[in-house]
Amino acid sequence: MATSDSEHDTEVEDVNVLVTGFGTFRDAPTVNASWEIARSLPRELPPSLVHPSRTHIICFREPVEVVYGVVQTLIPKLYEKPIHYDFVLHLGVSAEQPLYKFERYASRDNCNEVDEADVLGHSPYLTDEPDYWHSCPARLENSARLEDVYSRWKDEARGSDVRISTDAGGYLCEYLYYASLAYFRHKGNDQKPWHEKTNISFLHVPDSLEAEHLAEGKSVAMALIHALVDSRRSIDGNEV
C-alpha cells in the first residue's frame, strides 16, 4: 500500500476497499438495490481532518449472480489479484425497511438450513463446497472491533436506522459472507498481524429502488467504510 500525506502532516497508509453487490433474484427481479448502491460509491474517499486515510473503493465489475455455484467459483478469482484489499464490504438486500444491518457472524449451518433455491433452482446442500470450509468453524465472525465500529458508524450515519445484526439470514447473502470469511481464514488471514489482515464485512440494505433510499444507502455505506477504516487505524493511533 502506498502512503500519502494527510492534511495534518502525518503520513498514513492508503486503504483499498473492495465492494460487491448482488444481481437480480425473485425479490429483486429487475435491479438489485445492493448493486445500485455498490456501483454508486465514489472511487475514492479523500483524506480529511476527520478521516485521515485516503480510501480507494474498488467496486467489483459486475453484480454477483444469485447462484451458489457461481459464488464458489467467484471467491478465489475475486481475491487472487495483485492488489491487496484491506477491507471487503459485501452488500445485499433485506426486506426489513428502512433498516441497515451490519452482520456480526456468518454461519455455515444456517446457509444449509435455509433450503431456498437460487435463481437456477439449485439448493445450497447440492452445491460442492471447498474442502477448507469443513476445516473452519461452523460460525465465523467479523474481525473488526464491532462496538467501536458501530459507535463511529452511528455517529456519521445519524438519522438512519443502523444496527449490528447476529442473523445474516441464510440464502446467498450469508453464503457469500461465509465463503469470503472461510477463504481468507484458509489463506492464513487469522494468523497475520492486525494491520495486515483483510477485514470481511457484510451490510444488508433495504430492498428498495426509490431514489431517496438508494441515496441514503450510499451515505450509510460510505459511513460504514469510514467507521471500519478509522476504527482499525485508531488501534495504535496512526496506522491502518
How many helical stretches?
Answer: 6
Spell out the helices and strands N to C: EEEHEEHEEEHEHEHEH
Average pLDDT score: 86
- How much helical structure, as a percent, in the residues? 25-40%
In the sheet with the most strands, the strands line up as 4-5-3-6-11-7-10
Basic shape: globular
Query: Pairing-aware structural class of the strands and helices?
Result: alpha/beta
Q: Could you state the oligomeric state of the chains shown?
A: single chain
- Low-confidence stretches are 1-10
What share of residues are in beta strands? Answer: 15-25%
Task: State the end-to-end distance.
Answer: 10 Å
Could you describe the largest sheet, including whether it forms a barrel?
Answer: 7 strands, mixed
Q: What is the total tally of β strands?
A: 11
Provide the gyration radius in Å.
17 Å
Annotate the secondary structure layout.
Elements: E1 3-5, E2 11-13, E3 15-20, H1 33-40, E4 44-45, E5 55-59, H2 68-79, E6 87-94, E7 99-103, E8 105-107, H3 108-113, E9 139-141, H4 146-156, E10 161-165, H5 171-186, E11 199-206, H6 211-233
Helix pairs in contact: 1-6, 2-5, 4-6
Describe the structure.
The protein has 240 residues and is of the alpha/beta class. Helices cover 32% and strands 21% of the residues. The protein has helices at residues 33-40, 68-79, 108-113, 146-156, 171-186, 211-233, and strands at residues 3-5, 11-13, 15-20, 44-45, 55-59, 87-94, 99-103, 105-107, 139-141, 161-165, 199-206. It has a seven-stranded mixed β-sheet with strand order 4-5-3-6-11-7-10, with helices on both faces. Helix 2 (68-79) runs parallel beside helix 5 (171-186). The radius of gyration is 17 Å and the shape is globular.
